[in-house]
Structures are given as structure tokens and as C-alpha cells.
Amino acid sequence: MTFLKTWKAAFTPKKKSAKDNANNGGAKRFLSRISGAFMLPISVMAIAGLFLGVGAAIQSQTSAGTFGQFIKNLGDPVFGAMPALFMVAIVISFTDDIGTAVFAGLIGFLVFNAIQTPFIQMASDPSPKGWTGGSYNQTGSAEIFFVGSNSDLNPSDWVSSIDETLGRRLFKLVGSNLGITSMNTSVFGGIIVGFVVAFAYNKFHEIELPSIISFFGGKRFVPFVVILFMIPLSLLFLIVWPWVGIGLAYFGEYSGKVAGLDSFVFGYVERALIPFGLHHVFYAPLWWTSAGGDVTSSLTSWQADGNALTGVSQNLISDLNGQLQGDSFIWLGVNGLSYDNITWSHTTAGGVTTQHSAKAFIFFKDELGINLGRFMQGKFPFMQFGLPAAGVAMVMAAPKENRKTAAAIIFPAALTSFVTGVTEPIEFTFVFLAPALFWGFHATMAAFSFLLMNLLGAHVGMTFSGGFIDTIIYGMIPVAKGTNFWWMYVIGAGLIPIYYFVFYWWIKHFNLSTPGRGGNTKLFTKADYKASKGGSSEIDPQAIAIIEAYGGRENIVKTANCATRLRFDVKDSSKVSEEKLKAAGAMGVMKVSKTHVQGIFGPKAEVLHGKIKKALEANFEEKTKVDSKTAKATKK
What we know:
This protein folds into 5 domains: 2-117 and 182-288, no CATH class; 118-177, no CATH class; 304-366, no CATH class; 379-510, no CATH class; 526-635, Glucose permease domain IIB (Gyrase A, domain 2, 2-Layer Sandwich), CATH 3.30.1360. It is 57% helix and 10% strand. The chain contains 27 helices and 12 strands. It has helices spanning 2-10, 18-23, 26-61, 65-80, 82-94, 98-114, 155-161, 164-170, 186-204, 221-255, 261-272, 279-288, 295-304, 316-319, 327-335, 360-366, 379-397, 403-420, 424-427, 435-455, 468-476, 487-510, 526-530, 541-549, 578-583, 605-617, 621-635; strands at residues 120-122, 131-136, 142-147, 174-177, 180-183, 307-309, 341-347, 353-359, 556-561, 565-570, 588-593, 596-600. Strand 9 (556-561) and strand 10 (565-570) form a beta hairpin. Helix 3 (26-61) crosses helix 12, helix 11 packs antiparallel against helix 20 and helix 17 runs antiparallel to helix 18 (403-420).
């Protein structure tokens, strides 16, 4: 009976009181947790992309091919396993027992893909078994069958019976996931599997089974139920995903033909979502799925127009090493090519054949219509030039006697923006003081930055952000492939005076309390606490101050972080003190809902989160009181 009640409860929504509904984080909290989850694989991609870029440069610019391949292989498996990594990230974010949940997640991901394999048959198989046929892979030796009418296995016969282009797009929807031949669902598949696994774990990890099989109860039951859930999920994807994939491919292909409008809209929305921490959710599909471009689809259409790859470029698809979809993935695949130029021939209807050659990124834009970098490169000009210029304006807008103090606060944030592309420390200096300055001016300038980089022909990629480090790796080193990175400096030079004078005028005209003005001259530092007599060597005093600012240990429900934020679930956000959080080093505070509050701490958020978790596990009640008093004394 206990087993049946638990099973029924898993699918029966609990009745909530009005108070519960009021405190429910809702969509904002849900999206915030997704965005925070994405930062885990994104941070790994930044490192893996570094290895890919350096390895590719070694291969193409030197004779050390083996060593270059060795360096590339340090990062390549990360991108090959990206759907699984996104699955793990979602499971971690939405469950409490990470170990057991991730274990079940890996089982679920493998089963999800393996179930699809029987429906992908070799062309030599004489029995179509009532599934509609479609050819896949580079050699055309395998076929995938979708639910539909009986059909001859000959791909050309089937294609001619419907739209040829549509048929050819369907043929490209099979790939390899961790060595398993299955649908190429990209990161979408991993994310959905992660949600299903998280649901299964949260509902069944405490289940009680009859005594005779009680050994399989509790957490041991989770992998079993996950396997069962993967059966309908996998079959649903087999039926639905081909058409979703086609839609995304069409979007990726035609959005790149609207003269930069797509990148303009992207630039504005991406920047506008920064204060809410939801920008990762927005750009993920464009970076890592066919919504940001599909090589096989575009190449097939290009070849149908009488074009054919020649020389070493004949193996372009295999040389891209599976990185065939998404602005970021394709860019990294092209960057990893051991050759800089693409060669091809074109045969006219009259039978005249001509030979052509172009730099790799130029070929993808002009021939395949895939404008690589259009959803990435617009960040470089305003991150390296616009925002630092705004920082200088903040310093100069402060009274002369406070400029040194203001510079001590602003210049490190400006340098962080320039070098690493982490902009939140400087953006949150003004986002709450002047919302119109952020969403009206800054986000609009970001949109123009994306637009101009696109129209001027730049093709600079990134795996982390638009700082100088990424410029070197993804702009300067692969310049022979046609990145045209110098346009960021041309645009950036134009942004410097615009940002400086607009910010200076705005601060003065509206009397904003930027650092150095209105008494805003000091932020909390760890040194302040360490200088106090009550400082604890065992527990980080800044972590204690942050816990207190969030309403104390009893008010904190769940802790998490992304690259620059502490994302905490709390019982009551009214108990969270924005003043104390800012005194503890936060550049800004976002109360997303009544149960979710984000503190923006910049790049040190990851380290701080680890110290906070350690503090929460320790018994420091008495120490907290001492540290609080000494902190106040120090601040005075």
C-alpha cells in the first residue's frame, strides 16, 4: 500500500495554500535555476575551447601536427559530451543529493539514446517494418525510419515523393551520443532528460517497497524508474524531434539572411536579461543547436546548386568533428580545421566548371549562408571599450577629493570587463541607480555593436565572454581563417567617447550616487574583517556576513551560484538585507521572487559559495555575533 500511495503521489499535484502560492518562486525562480545550471558546462567549455583554439593554431601554423592534435584532444571530448554535461548540470541544480541523482541521470541519458538505435537501420536491411525511410551520415550507409507509411528503402525514391529539400534535411538528424547512434537532439535532449531525472529523483528517492524487495527501495529505486521514464520520452523524441529539428534548421538558415537584424535583436535582448540572470537561457539554443545554423543542411542545399568541395576540403564534414550545429559549436569546429582555406568547384547548367577558394569563415558566410560569430562577437567592443569608458566617466563625475576612492572601486571592475569580459561588477554599479541608462542606452548600444560586427564582416568566436583573453584565442590566433577581428577595435574606438560623455552627463544631470558621490565611497573587503580582533581563522568572515545578510542560516533553503552571482533560495526574502549584502561585497542585489534572491559578487562568486557552504555546515552562532560587532566597529 505504501508503494502504491507513493507512486500515486508522484503524479498528484499537492494542494497549496494561498501563502504557499504567494511564496512560490514561479517562472522567474525556475528560469533562474536553469540559468545557474547552465554556467557549470559553460565554464568547462571556456577551458575546453582554449585547448581547441591553441591546438588548432599549432596544427595550422606549424609542422607539429601530432602535438597540436594532442592539445585539441584535451578539449574535444568536452564538446562531444556536451548534451550529457547539460543533463548533469540540470540534475545538480534541481536535486539535493547530487551523487545519486547524477548516477541515475547518466543511466537515463544512455538509455534515452540507446532506445532509439533499433529504429536506425542499415541500408542493407531488407525489412522497412512500416517506417518511413530517410538516409543519413557522411557515407549514406545508414538510414533512419520515422513513424509513417511503408516506403521503399531507396532514399531517392522517398525524397522524390515529397519535397526534396525537406527530405534531405530529415536525412541529417542522426548522430552519435557518447558512441551511441541516435537522434541528434543536441543539448535539448540532455536538458529534457535532466528534468525528467530530477523529477524522478525528487518524487521517488524515499519510496518504500514491500519488505521482500525493500532492498531496491529508496535511492536504489530511482535508476529503475528513470529507465522506465526513458521509454516514452525516447519514442516521443523519435516522432516529434525530426520536425522540431527541421524547424530549428530553417530558422538558423534564414535568420542569417536578414542583414544583421537577427544579431541586433539578439544583442539587445541578451544584454537586457543580464540583471535577471536569464541571459544563458536565451542564448543557449542559438549557440549550441541548429537554431544558430546547421552545416549539413546548408551544405546539402549548396551542393544541389552545382557546387562540390575539392582538395582537403572534401572531408569538411568529418573534419568538423561533429560540431555541425549552433553558432558557437560550428565556429569551434571551423577553428579546429587543420587548413585555413576552403576550396571548391562550381559547375553551371551549361557544364562550365570553375575553381574557387576562400578563407574558412568567409566561405561559411558567403557560400553556406552561416554567418559565424553573429551571436557572440558583438560583446567584444562594448566589453573592452564601452564599459571601461563608462567607468572612467563615473570616476571623473565624482568630486575631486573622492576620485581616488572611486577609482579604487571602479578601475578593477573596468579592468575585469576588459580582460575577461565579466561585466556585471561595473554594470551593477549603475543598473539600479539608472534603469533607463542600462535598458535604454547600454542595451541599445550592445545591439548596435552586434549589428556592426556582423555587417562589417567579423567572425570572432568565444566560449566565455568578450574580453581580451578571448580576443587573442578566438580572434587573433585564427586570423588566417578570416576572423577579421580588427573590426572590434574600430567599433570600440567609436564607443569610447559615446559611453564616456553619455555616462558623465547622465550622472551629473540626474545626480546619481555612483562610487565617490552621495557618500558611496566604501565597499566591504575581507581585510576589514581580518583586521578585527574577533575574526575567525576557521570560518571565512565574509561568508558569515553574507549568511547574516541573507537572513541567517535558518532563512536559507538552498544555495547555488553562477559565474558572478550567489543564487539563494530563502524562506522569506523580506529578511534579506540589501544593505548588508552590499556591505559584504555585493555590487547589486536582485530579489527575483519572495523566495529567491541573487547577490552579484563578480568572478569571485564561485569561491565565495564554497566558503559559505563550509560556514553553513559549521557551528558558528556565537562567532557570528562577535564578527558582526567587530565588522560594525571596523566599518565605523
